[in-house]
Amino acid sequence: MKAITDAQFNDEVLNAKGLVLVDFWAEWCGPCRQLIPVLEEISKEMSDKVKICKINVDESPDKAAEMGIRSIPSVFLFKDGKQLDVKVGLNSKSALIEWIEKFA
Length: 104
Fold this sequence. Notes:
Blueprint: E1 2-4, H1 6-14, E2 19-25, H2 30-45, E3 50-56, H3 61-66, E4 74-79, E5 82-88, H4 93-103
Parallel strand pairs: 1-3, 2-3
Antiparallel strand pairs: 2-4, 4-5
């Protein structure tokens, strides 16, 4: 799992080939901190299917505002630079894997 900033978003997500999951999170957010180890596991298990990035909304507020983030964690799924879907809130590992598989 890779931490990215506003400046890296286009290269890492919009210009990337294949499936990219982006987690918008913040250090002070309890559910966000609970989601990080789940995403790290998924990143290891599904590295051949999806690239996982996280972007801290406090450190990179421009992209969060541009994406219309109102609640965190917000997890976006992109394929070849196009936004496919979004999940808001804490989701289970199995729900996230099923969601990723749907688009893989």
